[in-house]
Amino acid sequence: MQVHSQGRFAPALVDVFGTLRNRAAKYRDAILVRKRDDKAFAAAADPYLWSLIIAGMYVTNQTSRYTSGLHYFGQAADILDEIARRFPVNWAPQTAAREIRLLHDELSALHSDLPAGLRGRQMSEAVAERLIYRADADEALQETLRLLRREADTTQP
Known about the structure:
- The chain is an all-alpha fold.
- The protein contains 6 helices and 2 strands.
- A hairpin with a 2-residue loop joins strand 1 (4-5) and strand 2 (8-9).
- The chain is globular.
- The relative contact order is 0.13.
């Protein structure tokens, strides 16, 4: 994703941070529905999960707000765990949840073990290693997002 465009943040990044709170509320509403409404869940989880991953990557790589990045990745791992519970037949949510949880744990360790001046580079490298250079993590995340989009579309009455 392009971060800057002619001195401004890219529209997709503005969308992520501008709608994150609203997407979180929609996700919470979908989770609170006790009946098993996979369509509503998938429709809410898809944009929220995507936003959390993008926000986590951006904050960890482009700012010094590392604890916010940890928070975003932790929330993404929790959502992926719920997706894996709801759609246990598909391999992708479990793999993506494991990869994001491992990334979160690695970032947490780096955050607590390294002095502030060294955190940024190491944490940025950890994010790139896990989410960009490792095809299995990226493939699992992409397949999970496709699964959510299919569920949101195909379960219409």
